[in-house]
Amino acid sequence: MPAGPVPAAAPDPFAPDDVVWQRISPRYATAQRTASAVFFGVLLVVAVVLTVLLTRWVGSAVAAVLVWWAWDFWLVGRQVPAWGYAERDDDLLVVHGILFRSLVVVPYGRLQYVDVEAGPVDRRFGLAKVQLHTASPGSDAAIPGLPPAEAARLRDRLAARGEARLAGL
Amino acid sequence: MTGPRAEQPPGQPDPGQPDPGQPAVADVPPEVVARLDAPTREVLADAGWRRLHPVTPVLRTWKVVAAVLAVVVGQNVDDIWRLQLPGWVLTLSVLGGVVLLALVGAVYSALAWRRTRYRIDAEAVHVERGVLWRQQRRAQLDRLQAVDVVRPLLGRLFGLAELRLEVAGGTGSKVSLAYLREEEAQRVRNALLAASAGVVVAEGQDAPEAPQRDVVEVPPGRLIASTLRSGLTVWAVLGLVGVGIGCWFAGSLTPLFASLAGVLGLVSAVWQRFSRGFNFTVADSPDGVRMTHGLLEQRSQTVPPGRVQALQVSQSLLWRSAGWWRVEVNVAGYSGGSGSEAEQSTVLLPVGTFEELAHVLEIVLPDLGTGDEPPLEVVLAGLTGRDREGGFTPVPRSARWLDPLSWRRRGYRITEHAFLSRGGRFLRLLDVVPHARTQSLALTQGPLQRRLGLASVVLHSTPGRVKPRVDHLDEASAAHLLAEQAVRARTARAGAGPERWMTR
Predict the structure, then answer these.
(1) Is B237 helix (H, G, I), strand (E, B) or coil?
(2) Longest distance between any two alpha carbons in chain A, whole Å
(3) Together in a domain, B130 and B258
(4) Looking at the partner chain, which of B168, B444, B494 has a beta carbon nearest the beta carbon of A102?
(5) Domain-located, residue B207
(6) Parent domain of B466
(7) What is the pLDDT of residue B43?
């Protein structure tokens, strides 16, 4: 999503006028790349070993892994800046995706519980993920790549707001 | 609520039940109490622990024996024959095995029965169970989503039934009381619903149970015809024909045996559909909509008002000439069961005419909020109309690239109280979501949609068959719809009735 003012002629449906997006930490891209480096590294080693042991034709698999890795590297760099969230008075907005874009509106009153999760890689980079849960499995709203303090703040805030507006099912 | 529960000796009936109407029912509003008959009042008044019916272990044992036998015999039948034992040895060992199994099962079931008890007060249902791992469960009554009374075939012989409460806490949140005497199951159900309802506002409701008004009965003939005309049957027939041709060409029965599992699966699916829908009755009562159905296993489901999260009306191409409709609902908690179980519970009307559909809609969604327009016309337009008929907002013409067949059917309509989403040219669909029941919303857009300037709006409902969404809307109006719907859902929620539906 381009930064700066959007031309009035074609308002972006994924950026309502009155919304100021909070972006996630750019470190999340590095964390993601590290995680995929581990994955692709293993894959590459396997491919190389197979090439040496079996036949040179497996070498194309090495090339494929490299291309996939490069694609993933590039994609993460694009995806991370596209994540955003905004706390409005009554609901939380989460936007993400470049090719398949999605904007989720989660009313505070509908929140059943909020998780803060951090995997080993995320922890190393000082990041955490806030996962929102409503009574619907469809509202899969998550905000990754938050500094732990911000994640905790968001969780508490959401919990407090949710309590104030709780409305059963 | 306090009760003389700790000192109550096990295995004995509860001591001194208070007279019906005594203030032991203090927490339940008197209006509710007045509505109930004496035995139901006793259930509420008696804060002590109760037990399941003593025949329960027998039924459980039988279930265990049958299940184990089915598995063991089914898998080892060849080996057993190969042993070539003399007949009496075989008979004796089989009999011995069954007796041993039954003994173990009986002892365990008896222990389990002894250690299971339940208690109902005005706030919650408490259940304690478990032989080695003890479990105490407290299900809050104002969170009650549905109550089912299930009478399995074997239970019916003994006049026993299982009571199931859905409280919408995710998988395994179901509270099951199996087995109770049928009358007791019904009494407990009525008491639960009354306690859960809060207060009765209407007068003259001192009937034995919330007066029930039969609205729709599905005649068996129509059920059979509709089952025969379902896609499932078409597949079954196609499969059988395919197998027949295969057999003819192969000159042997090998293809039949090879595909036996698949064929049996299809046949059993058709049978299930029939036996579940058998004698289907939908009734209206102040406690909510009540569905009774089943051929071998009979169920009576009660879904209190406001517990229907979303609803879908559908009609396949084969049903069109007959004018039949099927109604399914999302009820929080019902999806927690296994696949077929969940499917079974969420059918509100397996097959019905438009008139019957109208009746059913009136119970579940009494006020669509269509203003001056007759709500049925809006519903009809949603079911059969296209483009702008019935005040629906259609999708733009560019949607035809993504959905060439049914783009003219796609569309949505917003009434004061509900969101209607229409679609499907061959399989006609209409989803209805009350604004107050929307969980969250989403706007999504794929690369092709983006090129065409389209976007989809998704309404998130509780888990279930109905997944309301409108695809391929004009992106600007989709964004607008999302913003508006968020506000609408919020205001509707603020004004929605309380969880205890009689206190509204």
Answers:
(1) helix
(2) 65
(3) no
(4) B444
(5) yes
(6) 305-503
(7) 67
Residue B419, phi then psi, degrees to nearest 5? -110, 125
Tokens (6 digits) for B28: 């339940």
Whether residue B447 and residue A99 make contact (CB cut-off 8 A), yes or no, is: yes
A148: amino acid identity, one letter: P
Residues B108, B109, B114, B115, CA torsion sign: positive
**When comparing pLDDT for B453 and B370, which is higher?**
B453
Same domain, residue pair B327 and B407? yes
Structural domain ending residue among the three candidates B65, B83, B114: B114
Q: Do A101 and B309 touch (CB under 8 A)?
A: no
Contact B146, B334 (CB under 8 A): yes
**Is A136 close to B483, i.e. CB distance below 8 A?**
no
Are B417 and B366 within one domain? yes
What's the pLDDT at B6?
A: 36
In whole angstroms, give the CA distance from residue B392 to residue B437.
21
**B223 within 8 A of B217, measured Cβ to Cβ:** no
Q: Cβ contact (<8 Å) for B463 and A168?
A: no
The last residue of a domain, from among B228, B258, B277: B277
With beta carbons less than 8 A apart as the criterion, state whether B41 and B195 touch: no
Task: Say whether pLDDT at A156 is over 60.
Answer: yes
Any domain includes B237: yes
Residue B345 has pLDDT above 80, yes or no: no
Whether residue B493 and residue A99 make contact (CB cut-off 8 A), yes or no, is no
Give the pLDDT band of residue B171 (cuts 50, 70, 90): low
Mean pLDDT of the residues in chain B: 81
Q: Which of B358, B359, B332, B485 is nearest to B421 (CA)?
A: B485
- Across the A/B interface, how many CB contacts are shorter than 8 Å? 92
Domain count, chain B: 4
- Looking at the structure, do residues B416 and B330 belong to the same domain, yes or no? yes
Assigned domain for B183 exists: yes
If you ran DSSP here, which 8-state letter would residue B211 be given?
Answer: -
Which of the pair, B442 or B500, is modelled with greater confidence?
B442
**Is the model more confident about B470 or about B65?**
B470
B465 touches chain A (CB under 8 A): no
CATH number of the domain enclosing B188: 2.30.29
Using 50, 70 and 90 to split pLDDT, how confident is the model at A169?
low
Residue of chain A nearest B446, judged by CA positions: A100
pLDDT value of position B231 = 80
Which residues sit opposite B454 in a β-bridge?
B474
Q: What is the ipTM of this complex?
A: 0.85
Angular region, B247: left φ>0, alpha ψ -120 to 50, beta rest: alpha
pLDDT of residue A38: 92
Residue range B146-161, pLDDT digits in tens: 899 999 888 888 899 9
**Statement to judge: residues B310 and B421 lie in one domain:** yes
Fold of the domain built from segment(s) A83-165 = PH-domain like (2.30.29)
B189-212 pLDDT per residue, tens: 888 888 777 643 333 343 345 567
User: Chain A, 125-144: which have a CB under 8 Å from a chain B CB?
Assistant: 134-139, 141
Instruction: Tell me the pLDDT tens digit for each residue of B391-434.
Output: 899 999 999 999 999 999 999 999 988 999 999 889 999 999 99
**What is the Cα B136 distance to its own chain's centre?**
25
Q: Supply the pLDDT for residue A154.
A: 92
Interface probe for B, chosen from A95, A103, A111, A140 (most Cβ of B below 10 Å), is A103
B168 touches chain A (CB under 8 A): yes
Contact with chain A for residue B458, Cβ under 8 A = yes
Residues of B in Cβ contact (< 8 Å) with A139: 439-440, 442, 460
B188 domain residue, yes or no: yes
Nearest chain A CA: its distance from B167 CA (Å): 11
Do B237 and B205 lie in a common domain? no
pLDDT at B325: 94
R_g of chain B computed on alpha carbons: 26
